[in-house]
Amino acid sequence: MSNTTTKSKTTADAKPVADVTKEFEVLLTANQKSLQDAFVSGTEAAEKAYKSGSEAFKTSYEKAIEDGKSHIEKAAKTLSEASFYDKEGAEPFLKVSAAAVEKGEKINAEVIEFNTNRVEEYFSVARSVMEADDVQKAIELQSDYARSSVESYVTEVSKLNTMMFDAAKSIFEPFGAQYASSMDKFTKRA
Q: What DSSP designation does 82 have?
């Protein structure tokens, strides 16, 4: 008789557990949508803040570059008007300065563009992960993002190395020409 009582209690107890589980699943599903919406809203707010800050930074950076260029041009003009100025000897330095500014501007613009694209892609993936229907889809999105991030980084480093090499070559060219010219003058005098 005790077995019968135990079985009926277990069966009776199982129904409420199933009901509680069902209620918990419904509650979790309802709150999951609210949580996803909150994350999406937060991501959108962060993305807007980043974009406005990024645009402000780019504008300030471009203005600083333009101001720097105009100051270098003014300094070069003022220096060329000075009586002690050796135009032939200083010309390579002016060429190097111009090349360094130009190449530095291109490299910095590339770095800024790369970082901006990385952050924008991050926000896009974060939004997609939060809106994913199941865990497997979210994991796939994160894996794809990780793979593409590494590939993009390797590509960008290669591109920046090429740009740096080109910049170094451009900077040293005027000195090479000046060195050759000086050596010609030296050997002709000797």
A: S
Q: Is residue 96 part of a domain?
A: yes
Domain range for 84: 36-189
pLDDT > 60? residue 34: yes
Distance, in Å, from the CA atom of 53 to the CA atom of 47, rounded to the nearest integer, reads 10
Contact, 50 vs 123, CB < 8 A?
yes
In a domain, 81, yes or no: yes
In this structure, is residue 14 part of a structural domain? Answer: no
Query: 101 exposed, middle or buried (CB, 10 Å; 0-12, 13-18, 19+)?
Result: middle
Number of domains observed in the structure of the chain: 1
Predicted TM-score of the model (pTM): 0.60
Give tens-digit pLDDT for 50-92. Answer: 888 888 888 888 888 888 778 877 877 776 676 666 666 667 7
Tokens of 37: 């919406």
